[in-house]
Automatic annotation (TrEMBL):
Its EC number is 2.7.7.72. This is CCA tRNA nucleotidyltransferase. It comes from Candidatus Fusicatenibacter merdavium. InterPro entries: Bact_CCA-adding_enz_type3_sf (IPR050264), CCA-adding_enz_C (IPR032810), HD/PDEase_dom (IPR003607), HDIG_dom (IPR006675), NT_sf (IPR043519), PolA_pol_head_dom (IPR002646), PolyA_RNA-bd (IPR032828). Signal peptide: none annotated. The keyword Metal-binding applies.
Amino acid sequence: MKIKLPASVKMVIDSLQARGYEAYAVGGCVRDSILGRVPDDWDITTSATPFEVKKIFQKTVDTGLKHGTVTVLAGNHAHEVTTYRIDGEYEDSRHPKNVEFTRNLEEDLKRRDFTINAMAYNDQAGLVDLYGGMDDLQKKKIRCVGNPEERFGEDALRILRAVRFSAQLGFQIEGETRQAAEKLAPTLRQISAERIAVELTKLLLSDRPEDLKTAWETGITAVVLPEFDRLMETPQKNPHHCYNVGEHTLASLRYVPADKVLRWTMLLHDMGKPECRTTDEDGVDHFKGHGRAGVELAREILKRLKFDNDTVRKVTVLIQWHDCRMNAEEKAVRRIMSRITPELFDRLMDVQYADAMAQSDYHRKEKLERIEKVRKVSRKIVEEKQCLNLKDLKLKGQDLIELGAKPGPVVGEILKAALYEVLEEPSRNDPEILKKFAKGYLARI
């Protein structure tokens, strides 16, 4: 097995070996290279202690000396170099009480999570695969190194990582590993919200975001996203739907690009349906007001998972408008684009497309035609650079003051009224026309 190492990685490994130490590329970069994928980063493991590593390289960053990690700056690249180590007893389902450095590669590899992540490589020794990682890659299996209950007991986040790797690689979780994940899923409560959010996002951004269902089947979502379990229990007896709310949500994830905002929007867009569900005398389910209810639930969930304010804002805006079926008329489209920005409006069309594709065939053709027509209108508005906000309005506050308006709330009131006029008819975005409008407005107040 020959892996082409990047020049910077080879330089670090060669430098360590030249000083008499062992050094290997290790973990995900080895796995991805074997699979023909481009690694996101290259980690290196070595028999050298952190202080020995620091003596060899001129430019280093003390990333985590306590746990044996030094970042080596090699040209324009930065690589984490970690000393072979043996982890002590784990006390919080995440961190070992202590770390013991070792000169033995086998000891280091056997503490790792999954066999496919426990392989090491350098050009001298070739592939070091002590736990059947290559065989599991060929069989497309996610399997823990050694006893899965021990591995998950050491670090509960590995339970969610098993599902994430399964989704990213299209692999199945091996039987005993899956059973251990189900048994120990409740221990995920001890993992920080930030780390849960990172793993969920990686899962959602994979080629198989619908594999979130595996997290539901194994009891993971009951702990980290219990609101999703309610979706899986909520039927949709309605001509527009062929799935329950949860299955519809999973299906919709496949129809938006792998974008964090879009995938989280689709995951949360129908969160309001369980509490808004009513059934009429004909047995048909209705979900009036689920968009508004969903906004509040989505905000609560995203805040709980410690998402940044910008992501929370964008996702909740898209959820608020996801069920708005505007006509393909410029005036109507301009008004909404003005309220949510052109960027989010284009994403809104992606959301509505995915929503329609995950429904039944009932009126699907008409739904998709409407969405495409609206999208074309919105792009025409952008191409023509039509005014959608106060920044592009050809009337400014100073203009109003020169016309006799007193500085204060009235200036903003007139500017908003002028913008509404321009949204109604773009040709009115002319300085003279707007000044005349403003004069008339001032005369009435």
